[in-house]
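User: Show me sequence and structure for the first protein, then do the same for the second.

Assistant: Starting with the first protein.
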Amino acid sequence: MSDNTTHIANEPMVAFASPSYTEVMATIYRMGIPATVKERVGQRLVTESKGKNLTNILNHVAHLSKLKDNWDGDGASHILSEVLDNIRSVLMFSNDSDWQNWSISPDVNGTLILQSDDALCAISLGSQEFSYLSRRGGKRIADSHIKFTVNSFLNVMHSLQ
């Protein structure tokens, strides 16, 4: 006979009737559970509902968030919490295909650099602004001090692909 013992999850569980990811996340963040659990649940929801590229980026951002000051051995700053919040916001509203040709690296000043796999464009993400540089077809396209919003950032990512 099989074991009929019920195993209880070690994390809070809630069922949602809404198909909206945003509504689910808003509910989770209103719950009285530790922030680390909220973050883990949010990451799991994004990971399970999106895809491989996004999963890799999420895992990489989680790793980058743990970098301490002097992570490069030459005085680099840790990644600023506002910058991490910005990239997580972008990840929540992006699709797996958005990340197919991008990688993320820490910068020494506490910001993040997104670089296309073909190295023809890069985006520097700060706490309140971002900038970009692209070289395509012999043309140099650049802009700086763009106020960060998820939509403006995603629009630039899409235009550079």
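Switching to the second protein now.
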Amino acid sequence: MKKINAIIISLVSAICCWGTQGLLSHAENVTVPGYHEYVNTEDEAIDNWYGIARGTYLASGTSGIKDAGKGKVNVSGTTNARSVCDWVKVAVYLDESLDGGSSFGTIGIYHFEEQNTTSCHGSKSNISVTSGRWYCVRGVHSVTEGSTTETTSTQTKAMKAS
């Protein structure tokens, strides 16, 4: 009888551990499908991303860069959720090209987050840059609700700093 009890306890323990592992594996990181709309002028570049999937949390994301005059730029990013979520975040990466726009390296990172909301916006103004070089902004947008995190990214076209 003791051997049978030991076997039953072992089986129940194994099933419980396996079941717990199954619960842990339900945490999701999801990249949401969508489309981009680019707005480019002489002194500004914007990438607007819109989610196309129904029933998801992440609705849209925007990143932008604007020439602020003589060696200065402004950068911004916005993430929008479809409903109130635990966390709404945006990270804005300022990239610079030393070779006329062929390749870029990150020179600044700005993180913004809001809790229990539908939107997060952040901006940084009058960032010193080198006149005549090319700059662009990448945005990383995320929305977390419970154990699900949905993400997307945006990237502006390059613009030359005045």
